[in-house]
Amino acid sequence: MGVHGVKAVFFDLDNTLIDTAAAGRRAIEESKHHYGEAEARAICDKVQAKLLKECHDPARMCITDLRISHWEEAIQETIGGAANRNLAAECYFLWKTTRLQNLTLAEDTRGMLTELRKGVRLLLLTNGDRQTQREKIEACACQPYFDAIVVGGEQKEEKPAPSIFHYCCDLLGVQPAECVMVGDSLDTDIQGGLNAGLKATVWLNKAMTAPGDASPVPHYIISSVLDLPAVLQKMEHKMNAKLGTDHTASSNE
């Protein structure tokens, strides 16, 4: 399917194309087997909180060492005693392995991407540490569905900086005004698409919650990534209607 004026669609990865949050929850459940239920739950809750507040500088520490430290701190904060780096590493690698095993690109999503790619170019644009994101991409085997893959941790700036979006445009040989950004984050995906002057931004809002007053305003909102083709069709109809109006106006002059 082709869309007038749209030559490329950029997709976010985590919690847009793959359910990273659900995979992480399953990995946390698996990690609880090391302790009694109450202690395990407390440790895992602490790790989850540390992951959410994580600020990683790859120049200072590799992501593996940082995340082992999360587990080490959480264990010590919960059960006390001396720090146990080996145990923390065991917990971390169990969590990581289980999470990767649960990252899948759903069959219906694969089908949608395959159909979309017949008419527009597709690019995967994900923020995050290079090693972590490349492992996720490998685990869900999404490479064949995209013309290009860009990882924020490999660039000078990440979403929402305009530079990374313009880099993506250059990769595909398209203009920002010919591109659509699809993602679940208002702060990075939607704000970034707006900052870069893309044709449209599409916010994936699974819970269909109302955005905050200060939040960026997306052009379109969908509850499932599978709703995207309908949005692109709507854009095409709008474009056709505008072209028809313009043609009528010029004919009447």
TrEMBL record:
InterPro entries membership: HAD-like_hydrolase, HAD-like_sf, HAD-SF_hydro_IA, HAD-SF_hydro_IA_CTE7, HAD_sf
Organism: Zapornia atra
Cofactor(s) annotated in UniProt: Mg(2+)
CDD domains in the record: HAD_Neu5Ac-Pase_like
Biological classification of the source: Eukaryota, Metazoa, Chordata, Craniata, Vertebrata
Iron as UniProt keyword: no
GO molecular function, one term: N-acylneuraminate-9-phosphatase activity
Gene: Nanp
Keyword terms: Hydrolase, Magnesium
Biological processes, Gene Ontology terms: N-acetylneuraminate biosynthetic process
Protein name (record): NANP phosphatase
Classification via PANTHER family: N-ACYLNEURAMINATE-9-PHOSPHATASE
Keyword Transport: no
